[in-house]
């Protein structure tokens, strides 16, 4: 698809505000420079969190895997190391009973004066789920997530004891539960299966994506919003998109850096694959989609680059935005124009990239949105920085 880099008006779908999200790294190891230690480097975490806050980030994801640090414990620490940053706790419903998760999240929310967010992960790999005793298939896992959401909300809002007997959970006389700081905690859904859309559209406050081409994200957003409307919702889930930006002072420098990075990232991924014995096509639809985009084309739209996805078998958030800070900021605004109001950017050079994004990217996006608010018109960011739209190069 081609995007006109200089359309006149702000589209009706555009989000008026944006919140920037990062991912909390717990030590200096990166895909570019993997270090053997898997432990928590507390000094690094302190510095990372402080840098996020100084750079103007709004939130940070605490991811979850069977071999990761515990996302709840880490979220609590992040909450105490920051003043404004929202800890987004990734939770897999198979790992915790829903009333207990409600209690943990409400506690985190109180400890952070209302900053807690939960990101529900239904599980994208049967092998990974089995590591912690979960043998449900994906359809059943999403049905459990749906029930989990209902119980979380009731646990936060019911004013008298209540009982529940569902397909996955049963309990009697719970409540009133420990309350969040000021009302229910935002619930986000990750996943691109049909069931993720059904549940996310009907029940979630936030629906999240990895970085996809604009045309594809547009139809996915329409799908989420259509399901929300069909479910009789007055509101719509907020949209979260995720990228791995690679920026430098000029377009050429950024693209050379990207080429150098992808070789290093591929090497790291191959060594980890060899060591841990991963193989085959990923089972999660989000990764399958990323690989499909990568097979079709290397560069999409203004700055989306898929070679990083191809090099890592679409593992996790893996599509990049490449260019100058201006081009990458303009590319982010392209997604804001489609309705994304939560933008996750985390680089391959984790801590240094937080500094650079905070200094060079976030202010440009915010300046464009402030201009729109003041004038009702688009600023010049997108028109002045066409990136890959200006050439057929880099393909
Ligand atoms: C923004 C975002 C963050 C995610 N974070 C995690 C995570 O921390 N841990 C995890 O196992 N999966 C994570 N996922 C992956 C999906 O939620 C996961 O693959 C899903 O459980 C099933 O995927 P599917 O519906 O696409 O097949 C994340 C996905 C998105 C979009």
UniProtKB/TrEMBL annotation:
Record has Repressor as a keyword: no
Signal sequence extent: none
Any Pfam family matching the protein: Bac_luciferase
Ranges where the Luciferase-like domain occurs: 36-341
Molecular function per GO: alkanesulfonate monooxygenase activity
Flavoprotein keyword on record: yes
Protein name in the entry: Methanesulfonate monooxygenase
Organism classification: Bacteria, Bacillati, Actinomycetota, Actinomycetes, Mycobacteriales
Gene giving rise to this polypeptide: msuD_3
């Amino acid at each position: 698809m081609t995007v006109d880099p200089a359309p006149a008006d702000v589209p009706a779908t555009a989000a008026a505000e944006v919140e920037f999200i990062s991912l909390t790294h717990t030590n200096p190891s990166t895909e570019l420079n993997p270090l053997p230690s898997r432990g928590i480097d507390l000094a690094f975490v302190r510095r990372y969190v402080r840098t996020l806050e100084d750079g103007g980030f709004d939130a940070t994801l605490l991811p979850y895997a069977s071999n990761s640090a515990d996302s709840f414990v880490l979220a609590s620490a992040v909450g105490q190391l920051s003043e404004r940053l929202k800890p987004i706790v990734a939770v897999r419903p198979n790992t915790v009973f829903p009333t207990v998760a409600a209690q943990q999240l409400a506690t985190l929310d109180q400890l952070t004066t209302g900053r807690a967010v939960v990101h529900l992960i239904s599980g994208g790999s049967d092998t990974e789920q089995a590591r912690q005793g979960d043998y449900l298939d994906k359809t059943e896992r999403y049905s459990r997530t749906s029930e989990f959401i209902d119980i979380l909300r009731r646990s936060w809002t019911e004013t008298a004891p209540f009982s529940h007997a569902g397909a996955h959970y049963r309990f009697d006389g719970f409540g009133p539960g420990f309350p969040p700081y000021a009302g229910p905690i935002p619930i986000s859904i990750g996943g691109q299966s049909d069931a993720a859309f059904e549940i996310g559209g009907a029940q979630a406050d936030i629906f999240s994506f990895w970085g996809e081409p604009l045309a594809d994200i547009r139809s996915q957003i329409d799908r989420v919003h259509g399901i929300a409307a069909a479910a009789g919702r007055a509101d719509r889930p907020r949209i979260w998109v995720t990228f791995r930006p690679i920026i430098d002072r000029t377009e050429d420098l950024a693209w050379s850096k990207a080429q150098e990075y992808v070789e290093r990232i591929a090497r790291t991924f191959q060594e980890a694959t060899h060591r841990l014995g991963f193989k085959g096509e990923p089972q999660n639809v989000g990764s399958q989609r990323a690989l499909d985009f990568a097979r079709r084309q290397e560069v999409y739209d203004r700055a989306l680059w898929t070679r990083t996805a191809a090099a890592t078998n679409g593992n996790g958030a893996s599509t990049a935005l490449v260019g100058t800070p201006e081009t990458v900021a303009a590319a982010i605004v392209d997604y804001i124009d489609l309705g994304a109001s939560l933008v996750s950017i985390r680089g391959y050079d984790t801590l240094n990239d937080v500094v650079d994004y905070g200094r060079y990217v976030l202010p440009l996006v915010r300046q464009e949105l402030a201009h729109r608010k003041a004038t009702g018109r688009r600023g010049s960011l997108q028109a002045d920085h066409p990136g890959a739209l200006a050439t057929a190069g880099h393909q």
